[in-house]
Sequence to fold (221 residues):
Amino acid sequence: RKEVEQDPGPFNVPEGATVAFNCTYSNSASQSFFWYRQDCRKEPKLLMSVYSSGNEDGRFTAQLNRASQYISLLIRDSKLSDSATYLCVVTIDNNDMRFGAGTRLTVKP
Amino acid sequence: DAGVTQSPTHLIKTRGQQVTLRCSPKSGHDTVSWYQQALGQGPQFIFQYYEEEERQRGNFPDRFSGHQFPNYSSELNVNALLLGDSALYLCASSPGQGWGYTFGSGTRLTVV
Fold:
C-alpha cells in the first residue's frame, strides 16, 4: 500500500463547478498535512495546510479525519486558473514530506 | 529575498555516467530535502540534510548520495546513471524542524 493515495483523476470540470479531491494515508503517526499545487513543468507550491478542525481559504476548504486517515480538498466556483495538479502531502516526524501521486484538474470554459 | 535556486535547469547524460545537482536554500533555511519526480508521478523523497549530515533517507539506492556545506547549500550526486533516473529533481528547503518547505524549480535530468 502506498503511503499517500489520491484520486487517480483526471478531473475535467466546467468553470463554476465544485470539485472535491480525496486522499488517504497509511501511517497513523503522520503529523502534518498539506495540499500543494503543481502547474505543468513547475515546482510544487503550498496551497494550504490541513487542520483537524477543518480550514477554509477563500474558495478552498480542507478537511482532515485522523480516525479514518483521510484528507480532502474542496474547490468551489472553479476558475480556469485552478487547472493544475493537486498533491496531497503528509509528514511523519517533520523530517520529510511524503507526496501522493497527484490529481490533475482541468477547468474548462 | 532569493528563494531556492537549483542548477543546472536541464541536463542530458549518458547511461553509466555520474551527475551532480546543486541547490542553494532560501535565506534563513538550514534544512535541505531532495525529491525525484518522474513524469506523471508525485515527488519521491530521496533524503534530507541538516547540519551537514543526512538526517533521513527514502527508499533510494546508494547510487544516490548527497552533501551539505556549511553555508547550507547542498549537492545531490547520482552514480552509474540508469535510464530510469530520468526525472525532475526537486530541492526543498525549510527552517529546521517543522514545515514551511519552499521548492526550487528543479533540474530536469534526461539519461540517454
Summary: The interface with chain B takes residues 4, 32, 34, 42-46, 49, 87, 91, 94-102 of chain A (CB under 8 Å). The radius of gyration of chain A is 13 Å.
